[in-house]
Write a structure and sequence with these properties.
The protein is 33% helix and 15% strand. Strands 3-4-5 form a three-stranded antiparallel β-sheet, with no helix packed on it. The chain has helices at 79-91, 141-158, 179-205, 210-215, 227-242, 295-305, 309-327; strands at 2-3, 7-8, 12-16, 26-30, 47-50, 96-99, 103-106, 130-131, 134-135, 243-244, 252-253, 256-263, 269-277. The protein starts with a strand and ends in an 8-residue tail after the last helix.
């Protein structure tokens, strides 16, 4: 039945009214008192409600939250059961839930979840255990990235090496939903998977060399100027020129981003290209109350304060030359 705090709540039906018209039927129900209010194990007083405002119980609502990995496994796909399942998973820090094979639903935990992104290796296709021939894939943003990478590899194996099937990952959601972080974790997975593939190739190539076998490790970091090292760091620059503090999000993306990664015929990452669109240019001269301009202006001003000597001279010169016209707009938000 509807609940003003949790949207929907599970209740027990004590009795059904005798009304002839199904639309007018009433139900006498009660529900557990919230544990956080000291009501654990006790029931709320019975109340009479209209049957028309309720939704039927789904068997998934009796399943442990950790087992509800795919919403498509539910028998009754209605709002109450969906919200209940997502809410129970969220309370256990299970922020990812599958919707079939191609859609992943993510809820921003607004905190750091321990061990959630500590390693990419458990999510690589080669490390996933199977049951009855079916992959047991844990809902995770890494799993989505691995699926795209795996599909690319399959197209390379089953078709002309020069005609691979492109793969796309769309990250969508409202402001503050976690799109920027999700995109960075996808990029992190693809870069790390490519690094591990290179390490494996090196080990195979040098299999007969005892020295190479001892000195080659999966813990080896990427070369300083390699694609694996440069790609993740590039996101910081994009955020500086395109992200800003808003009422809902301290690091809100104010533009759309299309990132294209290019792979060789051997399925190795060789280049990357990023295209931006719909940048919120009006933010330069018009900022809402308690919001801020793009991060880069505050970073430049703050950097000048921490420098001395020639470094400070050039920083101040740069700010006066390029940023001074905008500096008068920064206090407009009173933030």
């Amino acid at each position: 039945m509807p609940n003003k705090d949790t949207v929907w709540e599970l209740v027990d039906i004590l009795s059904v009214g005798t009304e002839t018209n199904e639309a007018d039927k009433t139900l006498t129900v009660n529900a557990p008192l919230p544990a956080e209010t000291g009501g654990a194990g006790r029931l709320r007083a019975a109340e009479v409600i209209s049957k028309s405002i309720t939704m039927p119980h789904d068997s998934s609502q009796s399943v442990e939250a950790s087992q509800l990995n795919d919403l498509c496994s539910m028998e009754l796909l209605h709002e109450a059961a969906l919200v209940d399942g997502l809410h129970r998973r969220y309370k256990k820090d299970l922020i990812y839930t599958n919707i079939g094979n191609s859609v992943l639903l993510s809820i921003n935990p607004c905190k750091q979840v321990s061990e959630l992104y500590s390693s990419v290796e458990p999510y690589l296709s080669s490390n996933v255990t199977t049951t009855d021939g079916q992959n047991e894939r844990t809902p995770h943003v890494f799993t989505v990235a691995d699926h795209a990478l795996n599909q690319l590899a399959q197209s390379q194996r089953h078709s002309n090496k020069h005609h691979l099937h492109n793969q796309s990952i769309l990250v969508s959601g409202e402001s503050g939903a976690g799109k920027t972080e999700a995109s960075k974790y996808i990029l992190h997975f693809l870069v790390e998977a490519d690094r591990l593939a290179q390490v494996a190739a090196d080990q195979k190539k040098n299999l007969n060399s005892a020295f190479a076998a001892l000195t080659t490790s999966t813990k080896r970091g990427p070369a300083k100027n390699s694609m694996a090292a440069l790609l993740p760091s590039s996101t910081t620059i994009f955020e500086a020129f395109s992200h800003a503090k808003t009422l809902h999000n301290n690091n809100s993306s104010r533009f759309g981003k299309y990132m294209r990664l290019q792979y060789s015929a051997e399925n190795r990452l060789i280049s990357a290209y990023t295209e931006t669109f719909l940048l919120e240019k009006s933010r330069l001269i018009s900022i809402g109350t308690n919001e801020r301009n793009f991060h880069v202006f505050y970073a430049l001003l703050n950097t000048a304060n921490g420098l001395n000597g020639a470094g400070k001279f050039f920083a101040v010169w740069f700010i006066m030359l390029f940023v001074l016209d905008f500096a008068s707009y920064l206090p407009l938000s009173l933030c």
